[in-house]
Design brief:
The protein is α+β, with helices and mostly antiparallel strands and 134 residues long. It has two helices and seven strands, in the order E-E-E-E-H-E-E-E-H. 28% of the residues are buried. This is 8-oxo-dGTP diphosphatase.
């Protein structure tokens, strides 16, 4: 009997600083390896999406965040990689800590970009969230 494939849930955060720069991470792993992405990750069983994004940002970047609001939910489907995520994305701000790459096995770089001058190679979820912010 073949195991049924189901979508997964991933969360992300649009984090802006006082200079209107956005924090992006360069992915080393699938899905969309080699693309700039909003920081975030997977939701654990019995975890709320809000708690998941707060935990994931702390694990990846070593900072505490406060969620301001939900920006959008993306249908992150990459057929060529056999990946299907439903991805709520929040806008948040850093409340404590200094950003650094705590997951170098998964993230090539962590960098601030002017919101109107971001790289072209961005993930589906990042692209959709930025369009919803405008």
């Amino acid at each position: 009997m073949k195991k049924e494939k189901l979508p997964k849930v991933g969360v992300g955060a649009v984090i802006l600083d006082e200079n209107n720069r956005i924090l992006l991470v360069l992915r080393k792993k699938s899905p969309e390896s080699g693309y700039w992405s909003l920081p975030g990750g997977k939701v654990d069983y019995m975890e709320t999406i809000e708690n998941a994004v707060i935990r994931e940002i702390k694990e990846e970047l070593g900072v505490d965040i406060e969620i301001e609001r939900l920006v959008c939910v993306t249908n992150h489907i990459v057929q060529s990689e056999d990946v299907h995520y439903v991805a709520p994305t929040f806008i948040a701000h850093i409340t404590n800590g200094k950003v650094h790459n705590k997951e170098p096995h998964a993230l090539e770089q962590v960098q601030w970009f002017p919101i109107d001058d971001i790289p072209e190679n961005i993930t589906i979820t990042t692209d959709y969230a930025l369009k919803q912010l405008k």
